[in-house]
Amino acid sequence: EIMEKIVGNVGKREKNEIIDICEKKMSLDNLVLITKDQDEKLYNKAIDALKDVKQEYDGWWSRMVEKYNFEGDENGHWEVNFQTGQVILVI
User: Which of 14, 18, 41, 45 could form a disulfide with 10 if both were Cys (CB 3.0 to 4.6 A apart)?
Assistant: First the structure.
């Protein structure tokens, strides 16, 4: 059973940052799928870019956790509600 708990909020600028990061990640995920068996050069560029975006994503979360000290759980992860900026702990 999945449990969700609101553990805080991020500011508007921070919310927009994570939206941009997630949009890039989704686009690159799709590009990887599309190019996997079609274009090895583009596929490899997309994989490299995806690694960079994942680092950007992890860095964003590290900064937010340090700044806001969100409650966490070793078996869970955080999500941001893109409408409200609420941070949700999902376990």
Answer: 14
Q: Do 76 and 1 touch, CB atoms closer than 8 A?
A: no
Per-residue pLDDT at 52: 98
CA atoms within a 13 Å half-sphere pointing along the CA-CB vector of 68: 21
Backbone φ, ψ for residue 48 (5° rounding): -65, -45
Q: pTM of the predicted model, to two decimals?
A: 0.89
Helices (H), 1-91: 12-35, 40-68
- Profile the chain (91 residues) by mean pLDDT over runs of 10 residues: 96 98 97 94 96 98 97 96 97 96
Q: Using CA atoms in the order 11, 91, 6, 24, what is the torsion angle rounded to 10 degrees?
A: 20
Whether the Cβ atoms of residue 60 and residue 18 lie closer than 8 Å to each other: yes
